[in-house]
Hints:
It is built from six helices and seven strands; from the N terminus they run αααββαββααβββ. The longest helix is centred in the N-terminal third of the chain and has 42 residues, at 2-43. 42% of the residues lie in helices and 19% in strands.
Amino acid sequence: MKLFFGRHRIFKISFMLLLVFLVTLTAGCALIDRLQAWKNAGDEETPATESLEGLEGTEFINEVLFGETKEIALYFSDESGQYLVCETREIPKVEGIARAAMQELIAGPSVESGLLPTIPVGTELLDINVRPDGVCIVDFSGELVVNHPGGSLNEEMTVYSVVNTLTQFPTIQEVQILVDGQKVETIAGHLDVSTTMARNEEIILDR
């Protein structure tokens, strides 16, 4: 009887050891497969989804992997330089949509639109901040002033292309333009931009 129970105990221990071995082997194979998948993704210069989630966040995942976009309105000058015309554009859907819109405005109109740019060459967006009271503070580099072609109409096109583009968003009612982090009296000597400005519908030409 003792011999029987002894053999039974040895069999039970052996079975448990075999089970542990099989579980470890399965987990090891899964880990190897996962590492190989990551390696292949790196070789193909296509980042794995798990890595992207850790590094870039949901916003980047939606933009790159799922291609979500949003239609925005950009205001550029017409051929006469007297009115602003709306050009709609599809851009990646991101949380900082106002910042993305300013970058598109700086890039200029599409060639096929026939419209003219309103932001001087070399101008960069330094910062943008939307306050809870609905005021958007947008800060441009000094090229906004230094490289401006001048003239009252050109200055009006520049200022209100910024203001009208930003006030399309419901969280923005007024815009304060800064240059190199500072308030300025004017961009080209004609229009006061030292205070916040509201949307100007009269300058928009419908097409």
